[in-house]
Amino acid sequence: MTTWELHGYELANCNCDTGCPCQFMSLPTKGTCEAAVAFIIEKGHFGEVDLSGLKFAQVFKWPGAVHEGNGTMQTIVDEGTTPEQMAAIEKIATGEDTDEMATFWWVYSAMCPNKLQTLKKPVDIKMDFEARTGTANVADVFETEWTPLVNPVSGAEHRARINLPHGFEYRVAEVAKATTKTHGEIVLEGNQDSHAHFCEIHMSNSGVLEAA
Q1: Could you write out the three-class secondary structure of the chain?
Q2: What's the structural domain count of the chain?
């Protein structure tokens, strides 16, 4: 097994109501699970391959809950990614060289027997973590805009977090709203003003590192 470690940020948008039932061991709001996710690697490596500064994205779609399987997924790496870096990200993002059940990538990959070809496209991600705002534009695949939660009475920004002490994706996530428009092979149909989160990711072959 090749040793790897990543530190960076994740911006995610799924089709469920704010809070995402999966985080609380419940079934999806609309019966299906669809998500677009963007990643910024600030620092990382896969063996001797440096992954620092890279960006990539993924699209997932399941006909039911994630654990029921039969999902479809696709990974997209930024156009500046080298062949060696691309191969490394593909392995990490599909759960290879990872302890069983250790990361959300391992789980999502296991639940997605339908894996589309990895693409190399311009991936532009902008994020203000504290403000809970961001955008991701993945050429010919998807575009997402993240915004803070807003109090429906006062119109003031509202801040909420999800804390998962034993999570396989993060320890703490900032909750937001987002809308995703898709243009690629995987069409997301319910991601309008739906659940979103920002989280710091710090993980390795064995899962989330406590320094996160």
Answers
A1: CCCEEEEEEEEEEECCCCCCHHHHCCCCCCCCEEEEEEEEEEEEEECCEECCCCEEEEEEEECCCHHHCCCEEEEEEECCCCHHHHHHHHHHHCCCCCCCCCCHHHHHHHCCCEECCCEEECEEEEEECCCCEEEEEECCCEEEEEECEECCCCCCEECCEEECCCCCCCCEEEEEEEEEEECCCCCCCCCCCEEEEEEEEEEECCEECCCC
A2: 1
